[in-house]
Write a structure and sequence with these properties.
By secondary structure, the chain is α/β, with parallel strands linked by helices. It has a domain of 135 residues: P-loop containing nucleotide triphosphate hydrolases (Rossmann fold). The protein contains 9 helices and 9 strands. The longest helix has 23 residues. The relative contact order is 0.19. GO terms for molecular function: ATP binding; ATP hydrolysis activity. Keywords: ATP-binding, Nucleotide-binding, Transport.
Amino acid sequence: MTATLAVPPLATSQDSAVELVGVRKTFGRGPAAVTALDGVDLRVGAGEFVCLLGASGCGKSTLLNLVADLDQPSAGRIVRHTARPAVMFQEAALMPWLTAARNVELPLRLAGLRRSERRVVAGELLELVRLGGLGDKRPHELSGGMRQRVALARALASAGDLSGVGAGAGAGAGAAAPAPALLLMDEPFAALDAITRDVLQAELLRVWRATNTAVLFVTHDVREAVRLGQRVVLLSSRPGRVVREWDTRQAGADLVTGSGEHAAEVIEEITSRLREVISSHAAA
């Protein structure tokens, strides 16, 4: 789809956050081997928001693990032009004995920042996700949506690009210019109720715009993908391959403003192709 709103252009190959070229991932050997991904070519531009759709078991989470360097491809190559990617999952996975602020500080501590610097950065990030003043709360004292906000703040701290957070965070990050940031999100809102999920989608967009972090977001929800992503990428059934991409900037903007006719058409088109993929996966 061609965008008609005055929105930022998609990134060019000169400013990619990560590039996957001919990526294949096979688990096991011999007759029992399972190929999860085969020949995946994908690029996420610096500061770009890309949503990944596909049938269950098509390799979406495997792809995130490869990009996160938690596993290695069997073939092909992955080129990262970012700091180490940060990952968010369905569960917030916070340390229950630490406060919200200390959870956010954890990756900063591992990176070697002094305590005073960690406090400044964590405070700025908690403000960014609208949890200012709640840094002393432990996870059990927070709602599910709040815990995911803390997880988002921690992921941003781990990703390392704090240039959009404010002068305090920038000072705390050190004198050297940080590498571009990449955030990998594996259905982070799937376990939340519809109202909380809607609120956090809006919050994620606000934070993304504030930090200019590249995002690769896995979801099964077509509407969520269109609302959030500048681009939606559809994977085939196993083995996963990129079968279609959509520029969804216009449709996403329409969903935000409420002028939904164009957005409805795009959602229906993507849903139809996803159904085809799911049907082929079920028949396999």
